[in-house]
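Sharing a chain and its predicted structure for anyone who wants a worked example. Both blocks are below, sequence first, tokens second.
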Amino acid sequence: MKLKKVKENNTKRKKINPKEIKERRKNLVDSLTEDLEQKGVEFFRPSEHGGTLDIDSDYLALPKDITEIPSRELGRYLNAFTQQRMYMRTLIGWQEIEVEQAKRVYFDKAHSLYEELSKDKKLSETAKERIVNNTEGIKEYFIKYKDEKKKLTLLNYNLASIEDAIFTISREISRREGDFNIENRNENVQRR
């Protein structure tokens, strides 16, 4: 049996550019972050994540009685919580982008079915949404979208807690300054 020579395809094969593929696969957070960093935006991240923040995690837990903490230690607590707040705001920004990306994917996946269901004038918007959101192949994207929104909510609650801690520390620092000023005033009055 003779093997026939297969004709070579005259069309040129397109070269694959791995860098181009990587760029297309990059998620929205990475691409937006990279674009803004190229424009000079500094995203606040801890040094262990390649950033400029040096957060002393030992000071991210408030002591039982903050009034017993020496002033120098209060400054360290304030510094750690302030830097953590800066990092949390960065994370919240990134999470907002994750929510948007999950929403886009979900809408893309759900669009054709939603459009088909919209032809049925008897179905309410809620009924259409329930059908779409529980359809195999769409449900996972809907859940991912909802989960990303919940993560954003948790990050915002965490930021609010950090801001409460900063307020507590700042109030204690202000109270001590007030006490110091009163002591100075009393000393000045006694000297006269």
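Comments welcome. The CA atoms of residues 106 and 143 lie 9 Å apart.
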